[in-house]
Every structure is written in structure tokens, then in C-alpha cells.
User: What shape does this take?
Amino acid sequence: MPRNSLDLLLLHAPSVYDFREKSILYGPVSDMVPSSVMFELYPIGFLTMAGYLEERGLRVRIANLALRMLQDKRFDVPRFLAKQKPRLIGIDLHWMPHCHGAIEVARIAKQVHPDVPVILGGLSSTYFHEDLMRTYPEIDFVLRGDSTEPPLHQLLQALETGAPLEDIPNLTWRDADGNVRVNPLTYVPDSLDYVDVRPELLIQMAMRHRDLASVLPFNGWLRHPTTMVLPLKGCAFECVTCGSSATTCGHLTKRTKPVYRSPESLAKNLAAISRLSKGTIVIPGDLLQGGRKYATEVIDAIAAKNVKNDIMFEFFDVPPIEFLRHIDAKLPTWSFEVSPESHDRTVRHAMEGQAGYENAEMEELLREALKLRCTRIDVFYMIGLQHQTYESVMETIDYCEHLFSFGDKRLQAFISPMGPFLDPGSQIFEHPERFGYTKLAHTVEEHRQLLVQPSWEHILNYETQWMTRAQLVDATYDAAERLNELKRRYGYISEKRADAVAAGIAGARALRVRLNAAMQGGADLSADPALRGEIARFSESTVSDKQELFWQRHLFSFDLGAIAKTALGFLRA
Ligand code: B12
Ligand code: SF4
Assistant: This one.
């Protein structure tokens, strides 16, 4: 039998598979991330898996179906899949909002290629592995854990040689009698340096398949080529809402404490990115979790590589000002973000984990940081927390005005709803009643049904003792409206942009009333073609204009010379 041209086809699905035919008011659930409401960004792990396998002589192709479908109304998924000849099809169900699209893509992949096994992976599939295997016959395997490269390699070898699947760590599979078998989750590496994110791999893949759109991370990335380098897996904090907190990881991925990439490996990755792109590089996850020494070594290693890109750090706690001064002395351009979640002490402290600090402490740090050369400081607040009432959300907006009154436009503030779902495996998901929450979906299938409800008021998988779903939506639009006016008044955004956000909020409110009325009258507007474009328009950039997220604009964000060199090198090879 001729060897298939592709060993692994990695597919990233949109949140809702047939979103192009539907008219759903998804809500501002993606306004704080670069993706659209279809969450088209694929996991970084696609690149580590692809890199690891390619280094071992296997062929991998990444296809961001979500992005292809967003960019081209006529992009036909079954036809695209029919042209591929993979030995294994991998689909991420890392983020729970993909559970509609991921499973639908698995079903179509199975229809098109009945003999090709389908594997799912990522944090959400790790949580729901048995549910997935029992409910959806189109899924053949789930590979659990936060690190899967070697077990995936082992599986690809076993599929070729017929070696027993019992020996593959982290694998959930079905035996010949149809029984679901759960191998122990024993592959939990204590170093992340065994894999690399090679940005040039994307160029090679794009060239090999003459298809750039399939490897791009999100819509608009060529204009804003923000990239991310993940320094760790797991987390030392205990935020009760988080699907990857210390306690959750202990159960879910068996990672009892975070593991870090070495400063050298991290800096090498940043340098490789900076050779191709001048865009902002985000380092999420708070380097200081690894200790001050580790964090300082990372900064020094990056400085030694002479990386010129703006580097954006995320801090979970108030960082020591000396550390920020060190960054300022070593890096040419940098910025950071913090997420106090609420201005209100009771609300914030109930989160436990990150943000267990006081406003005064944070303000002192912000004032000192603004004396440095940092290009931007983003402060994020959230709606949907314990003890948080509608009034408390409005007071958070008053507090944002207090921050704006510092008089430095580098200091930005944002607010967004926690959604669409509570994170599976988080303490709140596991014990909702203990934290004053009502959980409205339990299984994967229940979440899939929620995702196709007419409006995000009915999509959210929770409400709290302090706010119903309707109140969460009211609080979001009211807070967004007030914050937008503050940003207009303090000169953060242009009149034109503020008007556009205000119009978006007003439009979303009107649509919500219409959808609710139709729902109460038993009508289904979800497939009404007259509403289709309209609804998509009122789900994005409503709590704030997405453009505000992007740090720096470079007219020529890519080093075209370096890209051409990589491409030529690939052609010669
Ligand atoms: C970095 C990060 C982001 C980055 C994403 C960067 C990226 N491209 O991956 C940004 C900031 C953009 C982001 C956005 C979101 N995030 Co986030 N994010 C994180 C964070 C801090 C790191 C986790 C992470 O992704 N680690 C990387 C590891 C675990 O995965 P990986 O290396 O990419 O992939 C490996 C495995 O997961 C697995 N795998 C993954 N996919 C597949 C597929 C196959 C076939 C196989 C075999 C294996 C496999 O193998 C890979 C290789 O080893 C975590 C919190 C934490 N401490 O973990 C939250 C977290 C993962 N995010 C979360 C959420 C909810 C979101 C959003 C939905 C929030 C929102 N409403 O906007 C969006 C979704 C964005 C999108 N897709 O468009 C939740 C997920 C809960 C859940 N189970 O659904 C988490 C746990 C916590 C949180 N609340 O933030 N996020
Ligand atoms: S700091 Fe909190 S929200 Fe962020 S990854 Fe850690 S536990 Fe999750």
C-alpha cells in the first residue's frame, strides 16, 4: 500500500461549525482575545506537536478550518478534507467553546475518511475524555494531558506497526469489543525544553501546501502579527474560576506544580520569531511564578539575543518594581498586563489565587511603572464573579475612571464577561453551589446545545446567586457603554471609534430584545438569512474595539527578506 502523503492532519474548528448559516448573537465573549467569536486561534501546541513529529521525519499539516471558513464564505470543509490523505486526523478541543465545531468536524472527517482514525486533545478533551469516547463514535482516541508530543509520536508508530495501544501513555481508546480503555496519564514531563516552537515551520507548511490561510493564527494576523511564547505549563495560583489552576491541574493533567522552559530555550524562541516579525511578542503566565531569579534570567537571556520587538508580560500578582526596572534597563520596548478582575476587595479576594492584592498596592506599582519606558499597561476586569452584583460592576467602571485620571494614556482598562462557559475542572465548575453558582450544562452534549442558542444570554453555562444570565448581560452592556464614554472623554479613543462601539452596543441591545421576543413567541430566528450578517456585526468589538488590544502598529511588521530566505532554504532542501 502506498504510504500516505501526510502522517497527521491537525484541524482547528470554529466554535460553532455551521456559523455561516446561523444567526446567533454570540456576545462579546471574545473581545479580550485576538480571535473573533468563532475563536479561530489554534493552540500553540499545534506547533510543538508538528515540530516534534517533523523532526522525526513525519509529515504534518495544520489546517485552521475556522479561519478558512471566516475568510471565505464558500470554503467547503468536506471538499477540502477529501483532498487530504492523512494517516491520522487530529482535532483540538482545548477550549470548551469549540465543542460544537470540533465534534462536527470529527463527524465530517469520519464521513469523508471512514478508515482514518480521529484523535482529540487539549484541556477540555482531557476533562471530558470518557464522555467524548462514549457519546461520539466518530472519535477514536483522546490524548490527555498538557504535553502530548512523544505519546502522539508513539501512537503514529503503533498505527503503522500494529504495536499494542495499552503501552501509550495518556491515551484513551476503544478496544476491539468497543470498550473504552483509559491508559494511565503518566507522561507529565518536568521540562519543556524537549520541544520548540519553530515559526519557520509555518512558512514551510504554507509553501508545501501552497496555502497560507490555513496556518495563520487569527483573522487580521498579517496586519497585527502578535505572537505568544508560553514560558510554563500549569499554574501555582488557585483562582477558583480557572480550568488550569494548581488544584485543577493536579486532578486534570496530573501536574502538581508548574514546569518552566529554560531561559535559553525561551530566548531562542523569541529570537527566532523576531527574525521574521516585528510584531509584539506576548509572554503570558507570569514569569515571576518561577521565582525572581528565573524571571531575571529570562530577561537577561532575551536581552543577550538583542530582540527588538515589543515584549508584553502578564503578571498575576503585583510585580516588584525592581523587577520592572530591570526589564526597563535591559529591553528596548516592553509592556505588561494585570488582571485584578474587580476593584471590589470582597469580590477580588473571593477569587483566591491571582489578584489577592490591594488596590493601593497596585496603584503604587502603576505610578512607579509609568515612570519607566513601558509602552503600555493593560488592566483587566471581569463580570460574572462571586459576590459581584450589578452595582459592584458599575463601581468597577468608576474605579476605571480613577485609573484614567492618572493622566497617562499608556494605562488602559478593559472589562469583559466571563464566558461563554465556566472552565471545566475549575473549582466553580466542580462545586458550583459552594461558590454561589448554578451550572447549566454538565456534559459535552449539553454544552453543544447551548452554543446554538439564539443569544449569549442563553449560551452562558452559568448564573450566580448575585446575577442571573439576563443581569450578567445587562451589566456587561451597561458597563461597556460607560467605559466607552469614559475612554472618549479621557481621549483614549477617537470620536469615530467611540461612536462605532456605542452603535455596536445599541445594536446588540436591540437585537437581544428582538431575539428574546421571538424566542418567547416560539419563533426560531437562528437561521433567518435577513439577520445573519447583522448578528455577527453585533458580537464583536462591543465591549471595546478589538483594535485597542493590539499594542504597536508597524507598517512593515514582517522581515520579508528573512521570510524569503526561509522559503528559499525550504525549496532547495
Ligand atoms: C496562553 C493561554 C491563552 C492564549 C492562547 C495561546 C494559544 N494559541 O494557545 C490566549 C490568551 C489567546 C487565550 C485565549 C483563550 N483562552 Co486561554 N489560556 C492560556 C493559558 C494561560 C495557558 C494554557 C495553554 O494553552 N497551555 C498550553 C498547553 C496546555 O496546551 P498546548 O501546549 O497549546 O497544547 C498541548 C496540549 O493541550 C495538547 N493538545 C492541544 N490540542 C491538541 C490537539 C490534539 C489532536 C492533540 C493530540 C493534543 C492537543 O497537546 C499539546 C502539545 O503538548 C491557560 C491557563 C493555564 N495556566 O493553563 C488559559 C486557558 C487554557 N484558556 C482558557 C480560555 C477559556 C480561553 C478563551 C476561550 C477565553 C475567551 N473567552 O476569550 C480564549 C480562547 C482563544 C481562542 N482559541 O481563540 C481556559 C480554558 C478552559 C477550558 N477548558 O475551556 C484556560 C484553562 C484558563 C483560562 N480561563 O484562561 N488563552
Ligand atoms: S493565575 Fe489564576 S486564572 Fe491565571 S492561569 Fe493561574 S489559576 Fe488560572
